[in-house]
Amino acid sequence: MEQYLDLCKHILHNGASKEDRTGTGTLSVFGHQMRFDLAEGFPLMTTKKTAFRLIASELLWFIKGDTNVKSLIKENNHIWDEWAFAQWVESAEYSGPDMADFGRKANTDEEFAALYKEQMLIFQDKILNETGFAETYGDLGPVYGKQWRSWAKTDGDTIDQLKNVIDSIKKNPDSRRHIVTAWNPEFIEDMALPPCHIMFQFYVADGKLSCQLYQRSADVFLGMPFNIASYALLTHLIARECSLAVGDFVYTTGDTHLYSNHLEQVNEQLTRSPKALPTLVITEDEKSIFELEVEDIAIEGYDPHPRIKAPVAV
User: Fold this and answer.
1) In the chain, how many domains are there?
2) CATH number at residue 147
3) Which residue range or ranges hold the Thymidylate synthase/dCMP hydroxymethylase domain (predicted)?
4) Binding site feature residues
5) What residue numbers does the annotated binding site for dUMP cover?
6) pTM above 0.90, yes or no
7) CA–CA gap between residue 218 and residue 258 (Å, rounded)
8) What are phi and psi of 204, to 5 degrees?
9) Helix (H, G, I), strand (E, B) or coil at 44
10) Of 93, 124, 140, which residue constitutes the final position of a domain?
């Protein structure tokens, strides 16, 4: 993972100072690419502990076409909670303390952070236990899973892009059209968060499956380690489904940035040396990619440096 650390150094030394949607501020470069040979090990960050279970459960959520945080919260995965929470606290039904600008204030105001934590726990309980609440406030709109599995057509039908690309790889491996896109301009305003990783393409050569992802916006410290591992896992799962070995994961990013409140953490990570990459193990042989559960996927030999905490910019 030296290339990831080199990217962090590059941004620290060469990044342009930019404002952003969250109001946090970033150091940013435009256009970057990394390549990972998946046969050499699974690219899960070793210079800080990264939660593979969260990565796997989120990816399976996408693959199943789900867009509601209830499924994730049941798995104790809270990656998407803030975006659903915003829908509740900005609604007429919400009657608790003012949660305006909670993403920033929860990281800078201890008194507000305690109120925010309390309201988030109430929200999570309502999602899991209150009839109709998850349907109203837990759904994030037509985000990744919807576009991957049920892209809306003008005639009212839908396109299952993921199933179609698997069929295409099996039937016509040399095709240059093995593409899935999550960027659907018609529905961007209906999404809680427009997709950051917007398009991926598969490539077959010498019995190996490679994948290239284009990501329009990349949070290098918090998000990028998840994105790398998620699409590496997707490549493994699609290769398994198509009876192929794994090739490369090629990761191409547009606005590639470090948030201004992550710089101390990045510098701490840069003092650490990478360790050996772990191995991916899929314990279930009979299930298709659409039937796999989190417990069917595991990582072996993962011995990372300790976790480094940092605030999420919402």
Assistant:
1) 2
2) 3.30.572.10
3) 2-314
4) 21, 176-177, 216-219, 227, 257-259, 313
5) 21, 176-177, 216-219, 227, 257-259
6) yes
7) 9
8) -115, 130
9) coil
10) 140
